[in-house]
Automatic annotation (TrEMBL):
PANTHER family the UniProt entry points to: CELL DIVISION PROTEIN FTSA-RELATED, ETHANOLAMINE UTILIZATION PROTEIN EUTJ
Gene Ontology biological process terms from the UniProt entry: cell division
Organism from which the protein derives: Glaciimonas immobilis
NCBIfam families: pilM
InterPro entries xref list: ATPase_NBD, FtsA/MreB, PilM, SHS2_FtsA
Protein name (database record): Type IV pilus assembly protein PilM
Amino acid sequence: MDLDLGSLFGKKNPALVGIDISASSVRLVELSSSGNDQLRLERYASEPLPRGAVVDGNIENIEQVSEVVRRLWKKSGTSIKNVALGMPSASVITKVIILPGGLNDDELEIQVESEASQYVPFALDEVSLDFAVIGPAPNLPDDVEVLLAATRREKVEDRVAVAEAAGLKPIIMDIESYAARGAINRIIAQLPQGGHGKIIALFQIGAQSTHVSVLLNEQLIYEREQPFGGQQLTQDIVRAYGLSYEDADIKKRSGDLPPGYQQEILDPFLESASIELTRAIQFFFTSTPYTRVDQLYLAGGSAIIPGMVEAVAGRSRISTSVVSPFEGMQLASKVREKQMRSEGPSYLVACGLAMRRFG
């Protein structure tokens, strides 16, 4: 079993870039500190993945994905070879456990291994395991809360193999939903009163699925994966116009489609999207004590589909906006602001990974 303290929950790290490997593309973000806790966006870039190279978070073709990562790294212009990568949330088991306070690292490691065997449904010698002490346990002054994270070792090894084959050095393996939360909490902190007391729902709408997170005072209070994504719209375009999947995806983003597209293809998709996402909010209400959401943020590559915000806001009757993780950052001179504003929402995970440079 790998127990790599410093990988998943490491402290302040050397210069690194965040690389997010999703179902449809690979994205890279490099940040720097400009003082006074301000971040500066140095560069960002993306490259599409061949269809089928990554399926349901699993890397099916290491050679194809590593070639795309190599191309992306070169295209971005960065010289940093240390990278932070993300694991799909669905492939990582996380659990908060209570352990005695005052244990040293070796003793903690032994206790965590012992506890992990209760929660991990496969042999521990097939597992990559990590943990972090969160802090004192509520109402138990002599104990501490420890966050345990476990995933199948092969899934970690596949991502490491991709980075290394591209000539890069993976030094952090995070969980995609944690990286996204790090990025979104920075945005929430810019709201009046730092967003205190506000219930914020984040929908990361990807190609194949939508990850729903609900936050209150920087704490996760609800999480769910919804089987709905922008790939459905791409497939509708393929069927309607006889295009290749790759061409349909490009034209979906540019809007360069025949006159009947809006009414015949896009509007029904937006209707379906608004129903799915509103249903996700209803699940939140019925499975938690909460009865309201104050703000809905949309992110991910499919959040910027024209009409998505209006469709979701109209059906959910909740204040809805597309969110970019780069809001409030200084921009390096080579970053094109207009392009960054339109593409930013798809970089939430990559940005959160890049933020790991700062602890």
